[in-house]
Design a protein that fits this description.
heterodimer; A: about 110 residues; mainly beta; globular; B: about 120 residues; seven-stranded mixed beta sheet
């Protein structure tokens, strides 16, 4: 089945920049979306259509992609950005229409 | 502002049926641009999409292969909600279940989520 692969964890110093990547064959065809999830809460959409931010999401969050890799960048990370981040896209191979990455834990130091 | 409010039991016995409901406010389950999904999350499997229902002049459903033989998702236009039924559950179906809206336009993302329901399968 199609998979989206993320690094399990990354850390960033307060105010610095961190990039989270997501790799998968489906990303050659379909845009990635990104979700932030804090403990005990539902995921929150932070990027969709590869580069778009929903209303209310700070502009320090940005998305990009190249080939089979999508990236989420947090420029000037804040303490409240500490969370799990998941990528997602349409699945081009299986009947799981939507596929999610395994998640990246972002720690803000 | 769209809100999704989930309801249903948090404990289900093995071999029985898991049933959850997602009530929609601020949108219509019959919105012919949106799709309405169920997703679950467990520590062992992460986030997994289970299925969806949507209206495009008539009602459609799509199900993940992994649960296709056991799942039913139904819209309820009179109550503006949709439901999940998962039959013959086992402890492996223990997870947090979410309902979510795909806003459409072919971009395949979920812009609104329910609050989540922890469902434990145990006798």
């Amino acid at each position: 089945s199609s998979e989206l692969t993320q690094d399990p964890a990354v850390s960033v110093a307060l105010g610095q920049t961190v990039r989270i990547t997501c790799q998968g064959d489906s990303l050659r065809t379909y845009h990635a979306s990104w979700y932030q999830q804090k403990p005990g809460l539902a995921p929150v959409l932070v990027i969709y259509g590869k580069t778009n931010r929903p209303s209310g999401i700070p502009d320090r969050f940005s998305g990009s992609s190249s080939g089979n890799t999508a990236s989420l960048t947090i420029t000037g990370a804040q303490a409240e950005d500490e969370a799990d981040y998941y990528c997602s896209s349409r699945d081009s191979i299986t009947n799981h229409l939507y596929v999610f990455g395994n998640g990246t834990k972002v720690t803000v130091l | 502002q769209v809100e999704l409010q989930q309801s249903g039991p948090g404990l289900v016995k093995p071999s029985q049926t898991l049933s959850l409901t997602c009530a929609i406010s601020g949108d219509s389950v019959s919105n012919d641009n949106a799709a309405w999904s169920w997703i679950r999350q467990s520590p062992s499997r992460g986030l997994v999409w289970l299925g969806r229902t949507y209206y495009r002049s008539e009602w459609y459903t799509d199900y993940a292969v992994s649960v296709k033989s056991r799942i039913t998702i139904n819209p309820d236009t009179s109550k503006n909600q949709f439901s999940l039924q998962l039959n013959s559950v086992t402890p492996e179906d223990t997870a947090v279940y979410y309902c979510a809206r795909d806003a459409g336009a072919g971009l395949y993302y979920f812009d609104y989520w329910g609050q989540g329901t922890l469902v434990t399968v145990s006798s």
